[in-house]
Amino acid sequence: MASCSRSHVISLYRMLMKESKKFPSYNFRTYALRRVKHGFRENQHVDNPRTLDMLLGQARESLALIKRQVRCPPPPLPAQPFCDAEDGVHWKQ
């Protein structure tokens, strides 16, 4: 796969950043954004076409993973017991 043009890499970077911003949790969102920036910055001077293809493949896999994680809704919270002084223990939804 020799589609390593600059515009392709920038497009993939933008898609990763856009999808990472969709995480509802602040911690996951900031971590994903930081990892995307760091990964691209760390490898910006790679010239070997084979290495570049491998890195772009990993970036595409990461994009698919982020899309799956963003799409899945969080699991519902379990019912928690609470104590009412008059009636005893009840379950809160």
What are the defining features of this structure?
two-stranded antiparallel sheet; mainly alpha; about 10% strand
Describe the structure.
There is one protein chain. The protein is mainly α and 93 residues long. The protein has one domain (6-92). It has helices at residues 6-20, 26-42, 49-71, and strands at 80-84, 88-92. A two-stranded antiparallel ribbon has the order 1-2. Strand 1 (80-84) and strand 2 (88-92) form a beta hairpin. Helix 1 (6-20) runs antiparallel to helix 2 and helix 1 (6-20) runs parallel beside helix 3. The mean pLDDT is 84. It comes from Paramormyrops kingsleyae. One of its GO terms (cellular component) is L-cysteine desulfurase complex.
What's the tally of helices? 3
Task: Please state the structural category.
Answer: mainly alpha
Helix proportion of residues, in percent?
A: 55-70%
What Rg is obtained from the alpha carbons, in whole angstroms?
Answer: 21 Å
Poorly predicted runs are none
Strand order of the largest sheet: 1-2
The coarse overall form would be elongated
Indicate the mean pLDDT.
84
Profile the largest sheet: 2 strands, antiparallel
Any idea how many domains? 1
Order of helices and strands: HHHEE
Q: How many beta strands in the DSSP annotation?
A: 2
* N-C termini distance: 52 Å
Strand content: 5-15%
